[in-house]
Amino acid sequence: MSQFVDIERPVSEKLKRILEEDRNDIPKLISDLKKLMEEDPYYLETYIKLSEIMENEGYIKEAEEIILQAYERAMELLKGEEGELPESVPWEYETNRHIIRAILEAGITLWEVGEIDEALKVLKMLYKLVPGDPVGVRYYILAILEGMGFEEFELTFGKNGGYDTRSLEEWFERHKERFMEFVED
Fold first, then answer.
1. How far apart are CA 98 and CA 138, in angstroms?
2. 102-125 pLDDT tens trace
3. What is the rounded distance in angstroms from the CA atom of residue 120 to the CA atom of residue 163?
4. Please, are residues 73 and 106 in contact by the beta-carbon 8 Å criterion?
5. Residue 58 — left, alpha, or beta (φ > 0 → left; ψ -120 to 50 → alpha)?
6. Could you give the CA distance from residue 101 to residue 71 in angstroms, rounded to a whole number?
7. What percent of the chain is helix, strand and coil (3-state, nearest 5)?
8. Closest of 89, 136, 142, 132 to residue 111, by C-alpha
């Protein structure tokens, strides 16, 4: 199995509509997102959004569980009949992005809860699956290898809801040898 491209998922449009219509009614939003998850348990963006809301509402453990459930679903989607992964899951296909984000969020969640070896395993797999690393998995991997916690990473490189890409890239260039050794084995 060389390249994975997911199918179009009709619930993606429903998700956009629900997020817009229910954004101020959190209980209704949560209920509607759970219904969408039942309608298509393999559209992982729904899990990501529900996890974000649960975390914002203070339900940290539930948010973690939802992301790890999304990761399990992602693996079910990607693995072939023999349990093998595809060679690549290209970001260029918009239909793949919910899967890539779910795996990334699972890796970050594992990092946040201190399951470092598992986080590195998940992130390394993702790095190898997505050509060109458009989501910046390399930065998270290197931060973990350098002993940084997720909060420290966010405080160091966070900027206006995103990251200071210039300082992040400069930091990566200074330390990338360790990263390269890790992903090559």
1. 19
2. 999 999 999 999 999 999 999 999
3. 21
4. no
5. left
6. 9
7. 70, 5, 30
8. 142
